[in-house]
Structure formats: structure tokens, C-alpha cells
Amino acid sequence: MAAITRLLKPSHFSSTSISFMRRSLSTAAVSETAKSPSYPHNPLPSGVDPSGRNVQWVFLGCPGVGKGTYASRLSTLLGVPHISTGDLVREELNSSGPLSQQLAEIVNQGKLVSDEIIISLLSKRLEAGEAKGESGFLLDGFPRTVRQAEILDDVTDIDLVINLKLPENILVEKCLGRRICNQCGKNFNVASINAKGENGSPGISMAPLLPPSHCISKLITRADDTEAVVKERLRVYNDKSLPVEEFYRTQGKLLEFDLPGGIPESWPKLLEALNLDVHEGKQSAAA
Predict the structure, then answer these.
(1) Is 262 within 8 Å of 207 (Cβ atoms)?
(2) Where are the beta strands (DSSP E) in the chain?
(3) Residue 97 CB coordination number (10 Å)
(4) Strand, helix or coil at 166?
(5) What's the CA gap between 28 and 24, in Å, rounded?
(6) Which end is more exposed in the chain, N or C (fewer Cβ atoms within 10 Å of the end residue's Cβ)?
(7) Are the C-beta atoms of residues 64 and 174 closer than 8 Å to each other?
(8) pLDDT (tens digit per residue) in 182-191
(9) Where would I find the H helices in 189-281?
(10) How many Å is the Cα radius of gyration of the chain?
(11) Secondary structure (3-state) at 177
(12) C-alpha span between 37 and 273 (Å, rounded)
């Protein structure tokens, strides 16, 4: 707790949320696992055994890379909750709570939400999960700064950090194609991406993730998915969050994963990199 006190000024943040995070985040039991044969130069960090199903993993990656998509599928496969701080922020935005207007101004300008707000929202989500008997987690959208990573390090032991990667031009195209059904809340993407390879890198193709017929007329675009805001979010990410990658790289917990394409191409490769059963994951990929 002393380390957290040094990181967060008491006048700006209540210690209640941090205390609850310490109680709620449990350390997963892990064991030695074999290196993935498909990624000999970027193996799964030792000491990580995803078969334990009580994992404590973090997803990193630029906005629009697909953290939520792959974290939600792994959540189903592993039976642990997927906790997206982006979803928590959007839920608060859609509420009539005191933070709603303040968050709207921050998000619509492509800026990062403050540590104090994010940790407060995460604390409330963990409290709700504890009441339901949840254990383990897949964190998506947190930490986004080294300061947040240090706070998380002080309250729990992260087993693995999965860093999803895509070229910036594809990230922009993906973000501009995102749509949400305003009735069922599901996410879709109307972008059809066919990028040619450059400088020896392979090309990337991603088919659109189209909605069923009953959702088509109800699709909306997120307020922050404009080209100017998307590029600002990428700039902020590169400025603030790239050091987080180095933070976990030096701890030997970072697994870098270059997405080779859309879900059909990337999902089995990701399972391979994580030493998970590809056949077991087929149903999650189709979800």
C-alpha cells in the first residue's frame, strides 16, 4: 500500500478503490509450459499455464487492434471474465451518473481517461465480480500508462501480457469501419481491408464483420470513431502506452503477436502462440 500512496495523491483519489483491488485480484496458480513451436523467437513466457483456467492476463495494443474481440473469445474458452475498461467507460457515459459529462468531453477529444477515474470504475467492476464468485480475469484497456502498470503490479501478479499488433493504416481503417447495434449492443465492422505487403512484410486481408439482417437498420457509429479522433488516439497511445510494453518486456511477461489477418486467420495462430487447443477454440472463433 505504501507504493500506491507514493503513486496516487490522497487528495485526488480515495484509497478505497485500491484497497478493494488488492482484495479482489487473486494470484493465479501457474506452472512451467512448453514454448510454442510456431513462435520460436517470441515464446510464451515461462511459468504460464493457460490450462489452469484461472489466468490473470492483460491485453495491450493500439485502439482498434481487436483487444476486445480476442479477449472476449478467450474469456469464453478459458471460463474467466473479460473486463474491458473501455466498456466500463461507455457504460458510465450512457448513464446519468456524475462522471458522464466529464467522460464525454475526454473521450470525444481522443484523450486518455485519468488514472483515478479508470481505477474507480475498475474497482466497482471487481466488486460486482467478487459478489458473483469470479476468479481470474482478462484485462483489456488497462493499464495504459506505466503509472497504471505500477499500480496493478503492486496489487496483483500478472501472468501474461499479450500485445496485439497491426500497421497504423489498417488500424485507422478498422476504427472507421466499426459499428454498434443500438438495440443488442453487439459490435460489427463494415470495413473490407486488403492491404498490400511492404518492405518484405506480407499483405493483410480482413473481411468485414457484418451484422445480421435485424441489426442493419440499428447500426450506429461511435462518437469517437472519426479519422481525426482515431489518429489522435493512436498518437496518444504511442506517447503514453508504448512504454508500458517495455515495462512488461523487461519483466519477461510480454508476448508480441502480429495479427496475420482477420479472425479466421488470426484466432488459430493466437491459440497456437498461447499453447491452447486450436480445436477447442473453433467454437469461440465462430461466435
Answers:
(1) yes
(2) 56-60, 82-84, 137-140, 160-165, 178-181, 187-189, 193-195, 204-206, 219-220, 254-258
(3) 12
(4) coil
(5) 12
(6) C
(7) yes
(8) 999 888 999 9
(9) 213-216, 227-240, 242-250, 263-273
(10) 19
(11) coil
(12) 8
Q: Give the mean model confidence (pLDDT) for residues 169-176.
A: 93
Give the length of the chain: 287
Note the pLDDT tens digit of each residue in 209-225: 899 999 999 999 988 88
Active site residues: 67, 144, 178, 222, 233
In 3D space, the residue among 270, 236, 251, 217 whose CA is nearest the CA of residue 77 turns out to be 270
Q: Is the pLDDT of residue 173 over 90?
A: yes
* pLDDT over threshold 50, residue 160: yes
Closest CA to 189 of 227, 233, 225, 135: 225
Q: How many angstroms separate the CA atoms of 173 and 144, rounded? A: 22
Q: pLDDT tens digit string along 222-276? A: 888 899 999 998 998 888 888 999 999 999 999 999 999 999 999 999 999 999 8
Q: Is the Cβ–Cβ distance between 85 and 61 less than 8 Å?
A: no
User: Collapsing DSSP states into helix, strand and coil, what is residue 147?
Assistant: helix
pLDDT of residue 135: 80
- Retrieve residue 72's grid coordinates: 472476449
Q: How far apart are CA 15 and CA 179, in angstroms?
A: 37
The two beta strands, 178-181 and 187-189, are antiparallel
pLDDT, residue 218, reads: 95
Note the pLDDT tens digit of each residue in 6-62: 333 333 444 555 555 555 554 333 333 333 333 334 566 655 666 555 789 999 999
